[in-house]
Structure formats: C-alpha cells, structure tokens
Amino acid sequence: MRLDIVTENRLGITQEVLAVLTRHGVDVGAVEVIAHHIYIDAPSLDTTAFGRLQGDVFAVAGVRSLTQLDLLPGAWRRLQLDALLSALADPVLAIDERGAIAIYNRAFADAIGCDETSLIGRSLAEAIGDNDLARDLGRQQFRQVARDLTLRGRAYLVEARPITADAGTVRGGVLILHAASRIGERLSALQGGEAQGFAALIGESAVMRDLRARAQRVATVDAPLLIRGETGTGKELVARACHGVSHRRDAPFLALNCAALPESLAESELFGYAAGAFTGAQKGGKPGLLEMAQGGTVFLDEIGEMSLYLQAKLLRVLNDGRFRRVGGEREIRADVRIVSATHRPLEDMVRQGAFREDLYYRLNVLQLSVPALRERGEDILLLAENFVGSAAAQIGKPAPRLTPATRDALLTAPWPGNVRQLQNMVFRAVTLADEQALHPADFDLHAEQSMPDAGCWQTALDAFERDYLSRLYPLHPSSRKLAAVLGLSHTAVANKLRKYGIGG
Ligand SMILES: Nc1ncnc2c1ncn2[C@@H]1O[C@H](COP(=O)(O)OP(=O)(O)OP(=O)(O)O)[C@@H](O)[C@H]1O
Predict the structure, then answer these.
(1) Mean pLDDT over all residues of the chain?
(2) What is the CATH number of the domain that holds 263?
(3) Of 64, 164, 275, 340, most Cβ neighbours within 10 A?
(4) How many domains does the chain divide into?
(5) How far is 90 from 113, CA to CA, in rounded Å?
(6) Which of 194, 208, 236, 299 to mutate to test the pocket of ligand 1 (most atoms within 8 A of CB)?
(7) Of 299, 310, 224, 291, which Cα lies nearest the Cα of 254?
C-alpha cells in the first residue's frame, strides 16, 4: 500500500511518522518527502493494519491527512519519463561523468542492436564500439556540439549537452543521435507555419516560377487539388502554401500520411470514431481530421498508398460532402478542401486496379507538378545557401560560405532524395565543419547518394526494376521470353514493361 501523509512543516515530523510505522511492524520500501507531503511505499501494509495504525499517525502533532495513492511521485515521474523517452524517434541517452549509461530510450537500444538486456551501468564506449567519442565527450565536459557516428551502417549526428548540478559542476551528459536522413526535418520545423504562403518556396528557376504562378491560381479555387512530384521535392510545402493563400487560411491545415499508418488507424485518424466504437477507444469518441479541419484543408500525403477500402470511403466524402465517424450514426458535413499528393504513377495504378479510377478523377480536378531538384538549375545553390543560414542560426555559429568547388559539386550531384536530401546534407555539413567555408568533402555527396531516403522504397524498387528489365529485354525480347527467364507470370512482366515503356 502507498500512503500520502499531509503534514505541517515541522522539524522532525517525518521521523515521528516513520517511528509510528516501525512500532506497528510495517516494512517501509521507499519514502519521499516533498513540501508538506510524506509519501510512503509500504508493500506489506494491508487494509487491516492500515486501520490499526491510522489513529497513531494522526496522534503525531501536525499530521493533517492520510490517504492512499497508486504511485509515489518518483515512480510516477519515472513512468512519464519512460513514456517520453520511448515517444522520441531519435536515440537518446544520458551518461554519468565516468561515461556509464544512466538512462536510454528504445530507439537507442535498437540503434546499437541491443536485445532485452539492460544497458544501464554499461560503458558508452563499449555499447557503441567507439572509444574516441566517449573519451572526447569526457574531455570536453560533454559540451561537444556535434560529432559523426555510425551504428550498424546508419549514420548519426551526435549532439551532446552537459548535465550540470546546482553549483554548475558537470555530472555527465545527454546525447541525442540525429539520424542523418532526418536532420533536415528540424530545419523545416523552424521554417514552420502554414500561413507563410509562397514566400516559403525558394527557387527562381523557370520551372519554379511557373509552379508558383500556377499554384497561386489553383490555390484560390475551392476544388480538390492533386500535387505530383518525386519524393522530397516540396509537395507538402506547396500544399501548405496553397492553403496559406486560400480563403480557408484561417482554419486548420491538417495532414495525414497515408503510407505511415495501418488502414484502421488511418481510418480513425481521418474520420474519427464514435463513443464506444471499439475497446480502448477514448470515452467520448474522437473527431478525425475531416472534422477538426472544418473550414480548412486536409492534406493526404502519399495518397497512392491508401487502401481500396479507405479510397471508397474518401470517394463518398468527395461525392456527398458528408461522412460518419467510425461506429457513428450521425452524418457530419465535411467542409474541407482535400489536397492530396503522390510520387506514384496513379494512372498506372488505376490500370492495375490498385487505385480507384473514380477517386482519381475526383482528386485530380486541379493538378500541380513539382519539379525534381535536378531540373531546377541554380535553385540548388539558392536552397543550399538558405539552408546553410538556418542551420548555422540554429546551431549558433556564423554561417560558413560555399566554396566555388562546392557550388560546382552541388550543381552536378544527381539528388535522388531531392530538397530533403540537400537539406539533410547541408545541416550535417554545417554542424560538422570547423571552418568558415564548406568544401565538397564536407558534403560527402557520394555517401548520401548511396543512402536513399527511408521514404522512397518504392522509388528505389522502381529504379531497380526499370534498369534490370531494360538490360534484360534486348537479350530476351518479348514479355513471354522474359517471364520464362525471370520465373514471373507473363502478365506481371507485360505490365512492368508497359509501366517503364520498355520494348515499344
Ligand atoms: N522550394 C523549397 N524551398 C524551401 N524549402 C523546401 C523547398 N522544397 C522543399 N523544401 C523543404 O524540403 C523538405 C521536403 O519537402 P516536403 O516534405 O514538402 O516534400 P514532399 O515532396 O512532400 O516529400 P514526400 O514525398 O516525402 O512527402 C521540407 O523540409 C521542405 O521544407
């Protein structure tokens, strides 16, 4: 049983209360004393024993109340901390001044490939297999701003912050491992707000000027908009800008990534659920994005990944302008503009039956196409300079300049991951560079290219298939022959050849 005893602030009162428990033979597991409260964890104390000792506790001068509670504040804080840590996608850990791990999150255990065994107390050097980092951290009193680290083939940027005690003495440090493929997100978070309009869309190339001009026009028309473009080209930024100049700009812009959630979760996120819709559901039900964005815009990213079931439900919203929460009876009017985005060839998906044709036409009333970074010429430099500025401001150091050789290297790089990849690389380069100038080597262009963005699995597969089939086709120049060689069905091969425009 756990107790909360509220008392006056009197010297020695805690000892007197504990003496009562000792007299009653109660085994005390933990005690916490915080301003007017004495919290006691007494695992063996049952209701009968509690009834017997109550009077004696109240007999101690200054005791005001005695109640039972579920958790001691310390345990409650530990639970909150655990939940907080496990909610962080980036690996995070704290080490003591000797370099031993004091606390860490699941993402860190996963990053080093650790199974269930606890890492607490283990040395950081041993856990990450990097003696230099642990030594440097100690030497610099955990004030090192950033450092590269590779764990099981994945690149991270280590950010260290000292843990200081009252007198300013350094007691250890907190390490945050930013995945190289995600650090650019911090920059876009800084850029923030959807109400920015088109000023947020950097680029003076002809293709970007065209896009901006066209987007300005379609933004104000209150009809569904489909935004096409490779992954990381800025589709969401365009969607936000369109919302920001539309008459809906004062209402919310809410986004759902259709590829990120399993069908049932995506369904309740989008449509919400009624009270008692399923076990574990929130008591009074929960509104979905369509309801919460009333008057605004719902952005459906990666619409090509939406399941056929949800496609049918979305079609009904677009046709009737109404929907019901999951498990709900009441019809709700959907006063939202649907803006969707995809990097997938939706027309091919329609032909293959993976995407509903009727929905395709409903979503595609207006269309914008965002050009790939490699088609934007000198915009690459404009973007890079802008990202250098924001990265330097965020880290708190002067913005380094790009050398002429770096500018050439950036302009000729193939940028498979587009603006997001550029953003990540710039952030990493600015953080790691010691000098006033960024050289080509700081960008590690080659390494980044061999590490495609986590989001573009399908693009990578498509690129592989296209390359593989176009090399094999001349050797086996018919879909039947190719199918026999590859051990695939004739239809599957014929579809792929058509998809990639191979063999006429
Ligand atoms: N023209 C631009 N000017 C400034 N920042 C840009 C521009 N285009 C893209 N970005 C930045 O690049 C990152 C990727 O952009 P965004 O998320 O909009 O791409 P996306 O095409 O929606 O990606 P995905 O296909 O993966 O959903 C964001 O941080 C965004 O702020």
Answers:
(1) 86
(2) 3.40.50.300
(3) 340
(4) 3
(5) 14
(6) 236
(7) 299
